[in-house]
Specification:
By secondary structure, the chain is an alpha/beta fold. Helices cover 42% and strands 11% of the residues. The longest helix is centred in the middle third of the chain and has 27 residues.
Amino acid sequence: MASDSVPAPQSTAAAMALSSAAAVPGTVLITGASSGVGLHTAKALASRGWHVVMACRDTTKARAAADSLAIPASCLTHLQVDLGDLDSVRRLVEAFRATGRPLDALVCNAAVYLPLLKQPQRSPQGYELSMATNHFGHFLVIQLLLDDLKRSTHPSRRLVILGTVTANSKELGGKIPIPAPADLGDLSGFKAGFQAPISMANGKPFKPGKAYKDSKLCNMITTRELHRRLNANTGIVFTSLYPGCVADTPLFRNSYPLFQRIFPWFQKRITGGYVSQELAGERVALVVADPGFASSGAHWSWGNRQSAGGKQFIQELSEQASDQGTAELMWTLTSKLVGAG
């Protein structure tokens, strides 16, 4: 099915007119906020007056990390979650509702990247861990918290998912054939139940780097499908973004040590594409809170990614990320696999 069946993102000018009060602080839940981009997003939003729910695997680590950036404890609530465990996701939602706080924005940031694996790791439900954490866990969080977002009285409710250039073949980083470009195929792996020995969405042999790319492709598809299904009826703004190459993020902690040393240098000195964790966090915070980012269905990017003064724009996504048939099938199969419908 052609991608033009998906409503186009709202124009930035129209979105600003509709969301003139979008800078009003609220309550935001951020997954994976104990380090990297998520932590700096928490700091940026707390500095804007938002109350941040830090949803992390290790709440002790999250508290220490927040203290290290001098984020006031009064601005934070700490909740435990393992996004790779669907039962833990359900407990997170229960714990959040027990706080009595409204949900005005949700940021799906947490991710695992395990490029050195020879065999797939499995979630408690038996799913390949990259897909289970990056896509399945967030998909379930979204489904369970949508009603909370709908009940919010905030003037600009938003749901933001972090994508990546490596899963978008419209950009150079998404064309790199090593280990393979993101490709969900006909989703035969999902159709077959995604249990061992199946570990890839397309049912083909396991490639750990590709498993990460595929999961992030699913994230960006999810954003578009949320926009298509729900924006017109709910007014919630659904967006994704790529804040730039944060080459020293803890996301790469499972890579070769030599890669961890060379990659930031390469991005700073050779490509000029390096973005600091602090700048990336500021960019995510803008997508959450700024009136200029209230265009639902958009995938935000920055042309001059390494510059603090770089201007945002709506990045075109690949044919696969934009294909409506793929989106509907992924939604249906994922809903079944996570028990969300």
